[in-house]
Amino acid sequence: MGRPVFKSGFAAEINAYIDYKVASGYKEKSFYYILHDFDHFCIHREINTVTFTRADADSWSEKRETESSTSHYARVNKVKCFMEYLRLKGYDVYPLRDITFKATDFQPHIYTDDEILRYFNAVDTYSSGRNRMEVIQLPVLFRLLYCCGTRINETLGIKKQDVDLDNGIIRLLEVKNDCERFIVLSEDLKHLMIQYADKCFYLFADDDYIFPSIAGTRRDESRLYDIHRLILKQAGIPYIGSGYGPRIHDWRHTFAVKAFKQMIDQGLDMYVALPILSTYLGHKTIYATERYVRLTMDLYPYLEEKCSDKFNQVFRKAVETNETD
Fold it and tell me: What pLDDT is recorded for position 18?
């Protein structure tokens, strides 16, 4: 993946900052994800010059529903360093406050089979007076999140040119951890994507997003969070609150747990299943996938007899890693 094209008022300075960090010995790609996210944030807030107010800083610093403490820490503090760089260059930008990393024992919500049926029934019967395209988009979009374990940002970043309908493969480019990858659609999901393409792909250029906003631009995540809570209510699934869920990102956790369970039930050795799952999810190392193995064994205790010894052999030596899901 080449350097993303930045389009906000900060575009030139973002490129200059990346050049500066590379010249200082840092890897260029380590700045792509967060600064690309920051660029989208600025576009959404219509920031067309190198200006950053206190309101902008407060909004960027707010912890998102889908974020772990680690992700929140990395996102805010990396842009904080960028703001300090701009201030040294003489720009009047509001400094971001310090974010302290706090370890969390948060447990994601793993949707039950009954909740999955009720949720997708609500998705398929959802209607919107605001955007009629959502009736067509949402059944496909939410099934990608669950059936393929994609992150919401990755899913909203899919462009028409990334979709191979003949082979049922989608390329993910707007990804975390610099791990570009492909997802393979099941036959049912491939058929659903073809139906979706027949209805609306003729409207899109190759570099258009396939789940656009009503304005035809890249869709903002916040609208989907609102829809998600409406769907939970319609499906009769209690929503505990922001940051506690059930969250959209919990579909990724649910996919990972069910995928790992399925591979073990089919007789695949854990040593084989773990790297497959880790690679498919876009993790740099298997250590970022550890939590899914733990969750799977907690939810399905009979698997602990099969996996616990091997699990301890693989993970008994703690490894420091900043990778987050």
Answer: 92
Other Cβ atoms less than 10 A from the Cβ of 245: the count is 22
Q: What is the pLDDT of residues 170-187, one digit of tens each?
A: 999 877 766 678 999 999
Instruction: Answer yes or no: are the C-beta atoms of 172 and 158 closer than 8 Å.
Output: yes
Pairing of strands 163-164, 181-184: unpaired
Q: Tell the residue number behind the tokens 């707010």, with chain if given.
A: 62
pLDDT at 321: 45
What span, in angstroms and rounded, lies between the C-alpha atoms of 149 and 34?
Answer: 21
| Beta strand extents in 175-319 (DSSP E only) | 181-184
Residue 5: alpha-carbon gap to chain centroid? 20
Q: How wide is the angle at C-alpha 147 spanned by C-alphas 145 and 151, nearest 5°?
A: 25
> How many Cα atoms are found within 13 Å in the side-chain-facing hemisphere of 192?
16
- Return the beta strands (E) in 108-262 as ranges: 163-164, 169-172, 181-184
Please give the DSSP secondary-structure letter assigned to residue 45: T
Of the candidates 151, 119, 106, the one whose C-alpha atom is nearest the C-alpha of residue 238 is: 119
Prior bond of 246 cis (ω within 30°): yes
pLDDT one-digit tens code per residue, 205-250: 999 999 998 888 888 888 899 999 999 999 999 998 766 779 999 9
For residues 26 and 6, give the distance between their C-alpha atoms in angstroms, rounded to a whole number: 20
At a CB cut-off of 8 Å and minimum separation 6, what does 82 contact? Answer: 14, 17, 35, 38
pLDDT per position as a tens digit, 247-278? 999 999 999 889 988 988 898 888 788 888 88
What is the C-alpha separation between 223 and 199, in angstroms, rounded? 22
Query: What is the Cα 168 distance to its own chain's centre?
Result: 21
